[in-house]
Every structure is written in C-alpha cells, then in structure tokens.
From TrEMBL:
GO molecular function, one term: heme binding
The enzyme's E.C. designation: 2.8.5.2
Family stated for the protein in its record: Belongs to the SoxA family.
UniProt binding sites for heme c 2: C204, C207, H208, C249
Protein name: SoxAX cytochrome complex subunit A
Gene3D superfamilies in the record: Cytochrome c-like domain
Catalytic activity: L-cysteinyl-[SoxY protein] + thiosulfate + 2 Fe(III)-[cytochrome c] = S-sulfosulfanyl-L-cysteinyl-[SoxY protein] + 2 Fe(II)-[cytochrome c] + 2 H(+); S-sulfanyl-L-cysteinyl-[SoxY protein] + thiosulfate + 2 Fe(III)-[cytochrome c] = S-(2-sulfodisulfanyl)-L-cysteinyl-[SoxY protein] + 2 Fe(II)-[cytochrome c] + 2 H(+)
Species this protein is from: Paracoccus sphaerophysae
Amino acid sequence: MTKAIRSLGALGISLALTLPALAETAPTETPDIVIDGGAVTLPTFADAPAHLEGALGDKIYSGWVFRDAETRAMQEDDFANPSMAFVDQGIEAWNTVDGTEGKSCASCHNEIESMKGVRAVMPKVNAAGELWSMENYINDCRTNRMGAEAWKWSSQPMENMTLAISLQSRGMPVDVAIDGPAKPFWEKGKEIYYTRYGQLELSCANCHQQNYGQMIRADHLSQGQTNGFPVFRINGAGTVSLHERFSGCIRDTRAEPFEQGSQEFRDLELYVASRGNGLPVEGASVRH
Ligand code: HEC
Ligand code: HEC
C-alpha cells in the first residue's frame, strides 16, 4: 500500500471523493437561525450568485445547516454562544487607549456600531490598490494611527476585534466586490480554489463543491462558506479566523498551507466570500 493511499485511509475520506460525478446533496431542510427567540432571524440559504454559473446548483447554504442540533442551538442563544465572551473583550479593547498617540479605536470611530456593514464587504481593495482583509485595516490603524503594536493575524486580541466588528453586520448580506480593481485578485483566488494540493491532490472544490452534504470522517461537509467567520469551534475550544480555517483544510490534504495573511490567502478569502454573496453575515457563529 502506498503512503498516499494509507493516509487517505487514515483520513477516512469516503470513496465519494474519488468519483468524477457530482455527489453533492443539498440539505433537505433549511430553517432560519432564530436567535434569542426571534430578536434576530437569519436565513440559511440564498440564491447562488451568477458568477458561479451553477457550480453549486441554484442555492448556497450557510455552514450552520450542516451542523448538529446542539451546535445549532448554541448559535441561537447569544447567552450560550461562547463567541460572545470574545466579542465583549473586543469591545473592551475598542474603548481602550493603546499606543504612543494616546488613542483608542473609539477616539476616531466612536461607537463600535459605526462598523456596521464593514464585515459584509471584506476583503476589499484599499486606496493604494491592494486587497486588504479586515485584519490589515485594523493593524494599519494600530501601527500608523495609534502608534501601537500590530496584532498577529490569528492572535486572540485580533480575533476578539474581528468578532466584535463582524457582529455589527449580523444579518446583512455578504456583498464583496469582484469587478473593477478587485477582479485580478478574485481571478487569482478562483485559481487557488480549483487547484489540487497535497499528497491527496484535493482542491477546495473537490470537497466543498462536488461533495457538500456528504460525510467525511465524522464531519458533515458544508459548502465551505465564510459568512460565519470568525467562528467559535467547540472541538478546538476557541475562536478560529478564516485564514486559520483555510490552513487546516489545506493541511488535511497533506500540503503546506500559505501563510496566514499572505496575498494568496487574501485572494482566496475574496473568492470564497464571493461564493457566499447574498448569505447573511452571521457575525459570531458556532461550529463543532
Ligand atoms: C486616529 C484615528 C483612528 C484610530 C485611532 C483608529 N482608526 Fe480605524 N480608521 C481610521 C481612518 C481615517 C480610516 C479610513 C477610513 C476610510 O478611508 O474610509 C480607518 C479605517 C478603519 C477600518 C476600515 C473601515 C472600512 O470601512 O474600510 C477598520 C476596520 C478600522 N479602521 C478599525 C479600527 C480599529 C479596530 C481601531 C482600534 C484598534 C482603529 N480603527 C483605530 C482612523 C482611525
Ligand atoms: C478533504 C476535504 C476538504 C478540502 C480539500 C477542503 N476542506 Fe474546507 N472543510 C472540510 C471539512 C470537513 C470542514 C468542516 C465541516 C464543514 O463545514 O464543511 C471544512 C470547513 C471549511 C470552512 C468552514 C465552513 C463553516 O461554515 O464553518 C471553510 C470556510 C472551508 N472549509 C474552506 C476551504 C477552502 C477555501 C479550501 C481550499 C483551500 C478547503 N476548505 C478545502 C474539508 C475540506
């Protein structure tokens, strides 16, 4: 038995993955996410964006519908949702002076509610023509406007802040720009999405496009949408950034992932986000 085949077995990847035919199975039920008894209601599907040209069928789905009842329930109760403690820490940091300029985020941006809508359009091209994720904007403010230290991409303070900012857009449809100056980044991200990586020679599409709805190990494969990020992972007992999730998925193919925050991952972030254009931002979601 070759090494590649052994590791395939170790991963427990079902034979479905090697079948050329499409094997995706759409969820049979798509209830809304009803938070705090209806204070917030989030649909879990939307019409597939035109640029997908039917690659995911005619509907796109939140990762929430692929999770078990217990995990779903945690996201339907802001009190039980473990992300919320980290959101609180993010809001505290928002109001705390840091750095040589004696400023907090609030000194310039006022209440964190002023960030409403920001998450829905990230990542986006900045004034200098670069594709920036929310983390880049935050660190730009910290280093160039506050005289504070940059936070590491997936450090706890950074994830607290991206969570707190994302929550302000809860319920707003994802709406990343893919044309104009964003086009070349989007094209590159698309190329990465369809490239087969690692010993297992699997692309993102092999799992999240051709096989969503299938079981892989004990996991119910979703479409790999990003509208819930950052998420709280029960298994990892902590918050997980999008680039951390990308890293984990690439590592599962036995490949060396790109650096978190790299150009490649930001391009990929834009492309994957665009596959979810129309799904509501979940802000602070829970995954297993
Ligand atoms: C000295 C003033 C100042 C401080 C302090 C500051 N910012 Fe900013 N921030 C700005 C300006 C100016 C922009 C650019 C606005 C624009 O061009 O639309 C910006 C942009 C942003 C953006 C991008 C928003 C968008 O819609 O593109 C985010 C996110 C952000 N800041 C987060 C933060 C966070 C988090 C902190 C605290 C850690 C912070 N900022 C501190 C002035 C500040
Ligand atoms: C071997 C199959 C496999 C490959 C290849 C793979 N993933 Fe995943 N991915 C998973 C599994 C399993 C999960 C956890 C269950 C789920 O949400 O699908 C997951 C979860 C995700 C999630 C979180 C979805 C949510 O709602 O929480 C994102 C985003 C994601 N993957 C993106 C990617 C991207 C981008 C690539 C390509 C770089 C990729 N994945 C490649 C198996 C894979």
